[in-house]
Amino acid sequence: MDITQAATGTQGSAPERWIADIPKNSREVLRVQLQTFKGYELCSVRVWYRERDDEALKPGKNGLTLRVAKLPDLRDAIDNAISAAKAEGSL
Prior knowledge:
Largest sheet: 6 strands, antiparallel
Number of strands: 6
Helix content: 10-25%
Shape: flat
Distance between the termini: 13 Å
Low-confidence stretches: 7-13
Radius of gyration: 15 Å
Order of helices and strands: EEEEEEH
Structural class: alpha+beta
């Protein structure tokens, strides 16, 4: 799986730091971004999509946003999921 990494960008009026795009299928990616909203530092993992006749990515409704302070907990949960998937032969 090819992960595209990028630099800081802006979306609307709030600066967002684009971390990576992870391809989901031919029309969708999971975009990982860091952002500040109402004084909170957040990490957003959201599905972005392309409409059939447009190359530009647009944010979808599906995704997850959590406080940056919770990222270590999320990493631990993902590490546990990877270990379980390996133990079950799925990965």
